[in-house]
Amino acid sequence: MSLDIIPIKDWLTGDDLPLVISGPCSAETEEQVLSTAREVAGIPHVKVFRAGLWKPRTRPGGFQGVGERGLEWMKSAGQETGLLTTVEVANPGHIEKALKYGIDILWIGARTVVNPFSIQEICDVLKGVDIPVMVKNPVNPDIRLWIGALERLNQSGINKLIAVHRGFFYYQRENYRNSPMWEIPIELKRLFPNLPVICDPSHICGKRENIHLVAQKAMDMDMAGLMIETHIRPQQALTDAAQQISPAELRFLIDHLVIRKANGNESYRSHLEELRKEIDKVDYALLNVLMQRMRIVDDIGRYKKENNITILQIKRWQTIIKDRLENGLQLGLSEDFLMGLLELIHRESIQRQMDIMNDEENPDPVSFNR
Ligand code: PEP
Ligand code: MN
Q1: Is 224 exposed, middle or buried, given 0-12, 13-18 or 19+ CB atoms closer than 10 A?
Q2: Which stretches of 36-181 are assigned E, i.e. beta strand?
Q3: Cys staple from 328: which of 3, 178, 305, 333, with CB 3.0 to 4.6 Å?
Q4: Is 65 in the pocket of ligand 1 (CB under 6 A)?
Q5: CA 24 – CA 139 distance, rounded (Å)
Q6: Ligand 2 centroid distance, CA of 16 (Å)
Q7: In total, how many domains does the chain have?
Q8: Which stretches of the chain drop beneath a pLDDT of 70?
Q9: Which atom number of ligand 1 is nearest to the Cα of residue 110?
Q10: What is the pLDDT of residue 312?
C-alpha cells in the first residue's frame, strides 16, 4: 500500500509548518468573506482561506449555502490577500464550477467520503486535472473508507493530497461533537508516512472553548497543520456558530501553540535512542512471557480434553479479571488498558484450547489479530 504523492513542502508550505487553513464554515455574504479573509491573511502560518458554499444540512430547510455566487467572493478574497482558496466539493458539478473560478485547492467533506460512488464520480472528473485535494475522514470510524478515497484520487492522477482529521461520529456525545479517536489518524500516518495529515479541531470540538487543546494535541501528534473555522462575527454565523472563532482568537491560539520538533538535538537524540533500546528489550521479554503463558494454556487445554472438561470456565475467568485488575491498577496501569489486554489474552487462550480440542497437533503461533 503506498501513495504516489508530492511532498507538501514542495507545493504549499516550504519549511513553514504547521500549515494553517482558516475561514468561515460557510460563505454568507461578500462582506463577511472578504473581511474574514483580510483579517486572517496576516496571521502567522495561515496560507489557505476556506469556506463552504454548498451546505446540505442534516434536515431540509434553513440555510443551504450560497452556492455558486460564493465562488466570485472566494476569487476576490484570494486575489486581494494572496491566500490560496479552498471550497468543499461533493459532486462533479461543484468541481466544474470551482475550477471555472480558479479555486486553488478542493476538499472533500466527511459525508462524501463515506460513499465510494460519490468518490468515484469525483475522481472521474478530476482525471487529467492538476489540483490539490484534501480528504476529510469519513463520518464513521472506518479507516478503510478514508484510505479508499485517497487511493482512488491518487489513481486518478491527484498527487497533491492532504488528509484532514475531523473526528468521528459516536453515539453518546459528551466532550466532543466528533470523537478524535487519535489512533485512526496515527494508523493512517503509519501506513502512509509520506501523506500530510492535518487536524480540524473545530469539527472535533463543536464548541470553541476546547479548540486550542485539540489543536495543541494535534501538534504533539506531529500533524502537518490545522484547519480552523474562523468568522468575523462567530456568534452570528449561519452554520456551526458554537465552534467558530474570531480572527483575533485564531491569532492568539496560533501564537500560543507549542511546536515541538520531531527530532531534537544530538544529545537528546542519543538519550532517546537509549530509552528506545530499553523499550525493545522489555518488548522482547514481554513476548517471551506471553509465549510462556500460552504454553501453559496448551497444557491445560490437553488436560481438559483428556478429562472432558469444558474450555470456558467462567468462574476462573471472573477471578482472573478481578485479581489482575486489582494488581494492575496498583501498579499504575489504567482500567481500560488492563481490560483490553486481559480480553485479548483470554481470547487467544480460548482459541488455542479450541484448536487442541479439535485435534490440531500444533496450534497456531500466537496471533494478536484473530
Ligand atoms: C466543514 O468543514 O464545514 C464541514 C462541513 O466539514 P465536515 O465535512 O468535516 O463535516
Ligand atoms: Mn462547519
Answers
A1: buried
A2: 46-51, 84-88, 105-108, 133-136, 161-165
A3: 333
A4: no
A5: 20
A6: 26
A7: 2
A8: 360-370
A9: 8
A10: 84
Report DSSP state, residue 235.
Answer: G
Calpha distance 207→177 (Å, rounded): 8
Please work out whether the CB of residue 136 comes within 6 Å of at least one atom of ligand 1: yes
Span from the CA of 123 to the centroid of ligand 1 (angstroms): 20
Q: Which of 21, 22, 25 to mutate to test the pocket of ligand 1 (most atoms within 8 A of CB)?
A: 25
The pTM (predicted TM-score) of the whole model is 0.83
Specify whether 30 is located in the same domain as 164: yes
Q: Which ligand has an atom closest to residue 166 CA?
A: 1
- Distance (angstroms) between ligand 2 centre and the Cα of 203 equals 6
Q: How do strand 105-108 and strand 46-51 relate by DSSP bridges? A: unpaired
Residue from 22, 88, 211, 244 to probe ligand 1 pocket by mutation (most atoms less than 8 Å from CB): 88
Helices (H) and strands (E) in the chain, counts: 14, 8
C-alpha cell at 132: 490539490
The three-class DSSP label of residue 320 is helix
Calculate the alpha carbon distances from 109 to 67, 116, 263 in Å.
Answer: 16, 13, 33
The verdict on 214 and 270 lying in the same domain is: no
Q: Would you say residue 260 lies in a domain?
A: no
Which residues is 105 bridged to in the sheet? Answer: 86
Which protein residue has the closest C-alpha to ligand 1 atom 4? 109
**Ligand 1 nearest atom to the CA of residue 52, by list position:** 3
The CA distance from 172 to 126, in Å, is 38
Domain boundary at 255, 278, 296, which? Answer: 255
Are 16 and 58 in a shared domain? Answer: yes
Q: Which amino acid is at 69?
A: R
Q: Tell me, what DSSP letter sits at residue 13? A: I
